[in-house]
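Justification of resources, computational component.

The compute hours requested in this renewal are based largely on the per-chain cost of generating structure records like the one below. Each record pairs the submitted sequence with a full structure-token output. That output is archived, and it is also reused by downstream analysis tasks.
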Amino acid sequence: MQFVDFTAVDPQAILLRLLIVFTFSFLVIIAAARIIGSENKARWFKRRTKYTFFNRRGVFGEYMNFGYPRTWQGLIAALIMYGIIFGVGIWYIMIHPYA
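The structure output for this chain reads:
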């Protein structure tokens, strides 16, 4: 496994991969929310109770908002999500060769 030499890579290609990983992370979070379900999500995660103007969320934000884990199931679910997102992101941006 060898990291990519970024001196010969077009910056637009790097930006495109960053946007793809960003979109992929949303898909992982949405898929996890659907798989876990709202009942388990409410049981496993603690959401914010006080909302101000700056941290208010819309419809999709509340659906994707997990909060922080308060049970071991929530911790495992969060670690799996983070592992998938960061693992694929680092592999795709830093290791997978650019064309």
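The longest strand covers residues 45-46. The chain has one domain: 17-95.
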